[in-house]
Amino acid sequence: MIKIHPTAEVQTENVGEGTQIWQYSVILKHATIGANCNINFNVFIENDVKIGDNVTIKSGVQLWDGIEIDDNVFIGPNVTFTNDLIPRSKRYPEKFIRTKIEKGASIGANSTIVAGNNIGAYSLIGAGSVITKDVPPYTVWYGNPAKQKGVISKEGIIKY
Q: What per-residue confidence (pLDDT) applies to 37?
């Protein structure tokens, strides 16, 4: 069963079984959300966004056109994504830059993911990090700009 809070505005019909969408979230018509996801309070999801199964998106996250999130990903509170490297008011690119978050990755609270930088499978981004380049699978990154600080197993064991 899909659970949608009465204050949420969900325009898409592409929501998987078992997904919960909480208060004051807005999801546009062409977005796709997988099964068993948890979309927390005050999340905005644009049209050209694909979210896999078992994804957690914490409060205050905006997912802009061009973002793809694989299965079992964790997006912490207030993570910021961009999709335009040279934004200007009332001027839109022909196509937004694509960003992919691969299976099992975790992104800590208040991190910023600059457009076009992909996050590898099972990688871990520390809270407050600014990602300015691709993150390889099974790596640990943090800082501003973020740098690789270690490796991590699928089970979450970190080696520095």
A: 98
Superfamily of domain 1-86+93-160: Hexapeptide repeat proteins (2.160.10.10)
pLDDT in tens, 22-48: 999 999 999 999 999 999 999 999 999
Average pLDDT, the chain: 98
Q: For 11-21, what is the mean pLDDT?
A: 98
Each domain of the chain, given as residue ranges in start order, spans 1-86+93-160
Please give, one letter per residue, the 3-state secondary structure of the chain: CCEECCCCEECCCCECCCCEECCCCEECCCCEECCCCEECCCCEECCCEEECCCCEECCCCEECCCEEECCCCEECCCCEECCCCCCECCECCCCCCCEEECCCCEECCCCEECCCCCECCCCEECCCCEECCCECCCEEEEECCEEEEEEECCCCCEEC
